[in-house]
Design a protein that fits this description.
heterodimer, A: 425 residues, alpha/beta, D-Maltodextrin-Binding Protein, domain 2, nine-stranded mixed sheet, 19 helices, B: 332 residues, mainly alpha, MetI-like fold, two-stranded antiparallel ribbon, 13 helices, globular
């Protein structure tokens, strides 16, 4: 009995081994026609249509290349990439979500400089209107920008109509914004209409403080932020804008109150355009909306705004760096930009023909072309090796001020002191 | 349910006995097992025994033991997770002194532990005594109170934040109805954020410890209460001189487990407040996490973890030392 059983076991294991080795050979056979498989990390594949769209366009032109997308959750994308790269992961193309992630990867030598490739391909970096310069660190550039969002302002036309107030002009200052918000605020309880909404992000307040180009978000003296913080905290105190503490405690996304028709004006990034268009089609809301350029401080030209950059980097551990570069070049170039624009996202390349593709989509408000015209785009967070630590300090200061736990002056003084410590180390 | 706790305790003691027996068995073997066949048989017996603990031991070694040892070493090094590791000696520990966030996190952690441990113990004991009474539907209540412990933490945090919503949350609506004009802003205020987290944590943990207390309560022999009644002891005296002393082994176990888990608090804070407002609820594990995964200072982060480890170890040793003074292991 025992020996029979053993024989049977040995036999079935042998059969299994044969099957496995045959199966294992299959990719080896197909590899003969030299298909290159590239891997690329992305976030929220299911809800972000452009990833696959650009890959499809590339694969159609390059039948011998297959691009596999590695889908990660957007909330902890930076952490996961960090752990993967530290563990020697060899994914070819790394999508760079924000500057802290970019800084972390390049200071640790996990991604390669692309200057040689750029020179060889003869790419004119000026088509990125400054984005490439923002990504340059000590003379080298490690990421090719493909998507670049800017801050604009969305407004609910129905609320302005009901209040009998003219729609905001494309060119308004923050003071005018404050005054307008107070004019259109009305009601209470369930009928409350807020004049404006500042989302909980630090950038929602701090971006406006560096629009004039006199100061940087990385600084040793943050007192220049006081006027904007005073304005925003006063608006919240007076019930003109929803309360920060409640937005945080309730984990309230900015789209909720705005799409509900409870908010007249929403300063937000251009990434929200796609959502506005598709939600209107889906019948999530039915009011008319418009956009203007980002409000600006007195004396600053309209079209001065802040922006975010999403870029592509090549992993130092990649075995297919040349093939990866070819894909990155396509993605970040004019052809990739057109595909991206057709999905309702703003590419980093903003040639008139690319913007035309973007603005001609169904459901875009008429003001969009004017609102998207930029004079100067400042990066939300400049490149710095300690940017992760500094951002955390700024987030904590923002939190303290906005919950009105400390005064604006004290909160900014504490941030100045702590960031100075980091910079002096 | 009735027999489970005594068995659990029994197993604990038995374990120690078996360990002793096991030792003598192995020692005895080396002298007694003389014939090769006997030795081989004994050896295969041991191998079988070891094979039973191997899966667990392997998992423990790979995912717990090795990382702990690695982290112990890292505490004296500097490493960003990618480049070369370099030896820095005790510099990481010196840096702790001037790290304001570390000092705040240390204070917050102690605050959290001193709030959570006694409150959870009192609440779970109270619940256990209530649900040990012959009341209708007590099993349903026991399940209800145990439920938070198995519920998803993210959901728990979201529900608590809604309950304590500053303007229109049910808690503040109730407080206003009771005549409190300016109810606290709970997790949106630096003064109330920590108490809010402590309350959520007590609510979440008390069901689990209630079960342990319940089992212990049912292990108290009824004859003790009978004789006390005959001697004329009232309810309070019975509780004070029979129930509490008889519960001390369970209390000891719970106090140690609770202290350790409280020092390790991370998940609840991450999802409820993320250490805020500002740094008002930043705790040591959160600071460790931020240092490692936001600032990529794995060495310094390990040093913080070692401080936490040393504190928990010291407190646990003291608790075990004090055990003799107050824990009753009387056999009835």
């Amino acid at each position: 009995m025992n020996t029979w059983l053993n024989r049977r076991v040995v036999k079935s294991i042998t059969v299994l081994l044969v099957i496995f080795s045959v199966v294992g050979l299959l990719p080896g056979v197909s590899a003969q026609d030299e298909t290159i498989t590239l891997t690329m990390t992305v976030w929220d594949l299911a809800t972000t249509p452009y990833w696959q769209a650009v890959v499809d366009a590339y694969e159609a032109q390059n039948p011998n290349v297959k691009v596999e997308l590695v889908d990660l959750a957007s909330a902890d994308y930076g952490d996961v990439i960090n752990v993967r790269l530290s563990g020697g992961d060899d994914t070819d193309i790394i999508t760079v979500k924000d500057i802290p992630q970019y800084a972390a990867m390049l200071t640790r030598g996990q991604v390669i400089p692309l200057n040689d490739y750029i020179d060889a391909a003869g790419i004119d970096l000026s088509m990125y209107s400054g984005a490439a310069e923002e990504l340059t660190y000590e003379g080298s550039i490690y990421g090719m920008p493909f998507r670049s969002d800017i801050w604009i302002m969305y407004y609910n036309k129905d609320i302005f109509d009901a209040a009998g107030v003219d729609y905001p002009a494309n060119d308004i200052t923050w003071d005018e914004f404050d005054a307008l918000a107070r004019q259109v605020t009305s009601g209470s309880g369930a009928d409350k209409i807020y004049g404006a909404l500042f989302h909980v992000w630090r950038s929602c307040v701090q971006l406006a403080t560096v629009q004039d180009g006199m100061n940087s978000v990385i600084s040793t003296d943050y007192s220049f932020m006081a006027p904007m913080y005073n304005m925003v905290t006063a608006m919240q105190k007076d019930g003109i804008a929803p309360d920060y503490g409640e937005q945080r405690a309730g984990n309230i996304h900015y789209s909720g109150p705005f799409l509900n028709g409870q908010v007249a004006m929403l300063p937000m990034g251009s990434w929200f355009i796609g959502r506005m268009v598709s939600d209107k089609e889906a019948g999530v809301y039915d009011f008319d909306w418009g956009v203007t350029a980002f409000p600006h401080p007195d004396g600053v030209e309209v079209g001065t705004t802040a922006g975010t950059l999403t870029s592509l980097a090549i992993n130092d551990k990649s075995d297919n760096k040349d093939a990866a570069w070819d894909f990155v070049q396509f993605y970040s170039g004019v052809e990739g930009a057109k595909v991206l624009a057709a999905t309702g996202n703003l590419p980093a390349v903003r040639t008139p023909e690319v913007l035309e593709v973007f603005a001609s989509r169904d459901g875009m408000p008429a003001e969009i072309a004017e609102a998207l015209q930029t004079v100067t785009v400042r990066l939300e967070l400049p490149m710095h090796e300690n940017v992760g630590e500094i951002e955390q300090i700024l987030n904590e200061a923002h939190d303290l001020i906005m919950t009105r736990s400390v005064s604006v002056e004290d909160g900014l003084a504490e941030a100045s002191e702590r960031v100075s410590d980091v910079l002096n180390d | 349910m009735r027999a489970s706790y005594p068995t659990a305790l029994g197993t604990y003691h038995n374990c120690q006995n078996t360990q002793k027996k096991g030792k003598s068995l192995i020692m005895g073997l080396s002298f007694q097992a003389t014939t090769p066949s006997k030795r081989r048989r004994q050896l295969s017996k041991h191998l079988v025994a070891y094979s039973f603990i191997l899966p667990n031991l392997l998992g423990f070694a790979i995912f717990t033991l090795i990382p702990i040892v690695f982290s112990l070493g890292l505490a004296f090094m500097s490493w960003d997770g990618a480049n070369e590791i370099s030896w820095v000696g005790v510099d990481n520990f010196k840096e702790l002194r001037d790290d304001t966030t570390f000092n705040i996190a240390l204070k917050n952690t102690l605050w959290y532990v001193t709030g959570t441990v006694p409150l959870t113990m009192a609440c779970s004991l109270g619940l256990a005594i209530l649900l040990n009474q012959p009341i209708r539907g007590k099993n349903i209540f026991r399940t209800i109170y145990f439920f938070p412990y198995v519920a998803s933490l993210v959901a728990v945090a979201a529900v608590w934040n809604m309950l304590f919503f500053p303007s229109a949350g049910p808690v503040n609506e109730l407080l206003r109805a009771l005549g409190v004009d300016n109810p606290p802003r709970w997790s949106a205020s630096i003064d109330w954020a920590m108490p809010t987290v402590v309350m959520a944590s007590v609510w979440r943990g008390m069901g689990y410890y209630m079960v342990i207390y319940l089992a212990a309560l049912q292990g108290i022999p009824a004859i003790l209460y009978e004789s006390a009644k005959i001697d004329g002891a009232d309810m309070w005296q019975q509780f004070r001189y029979i129930t509490l002393p008889m519960l001390t082994p369970a209390t000891f176990f719970i106090s140690i487990m609770l202290t350790i888990t409280s020092f390790k608090v991370f998940d609840l804070i991450l999802v409820m407040t993320n250490g805020g407002p500002g740094r008002a609820t930043n705790v040591l594990v959160l600071h460790t996490y931020n240092t490692a995964f936001r600032r990529f200072e794995f060495g310094y982060s390990s040093a913080i973890a070692m401080v936490l480890f040393a504190m928990v170890l010291a407190i646990t040793v003291v608790q075990f030392y004090m055990e003799k003074r107050w824990v009753e292991y009387s056999q009835v």
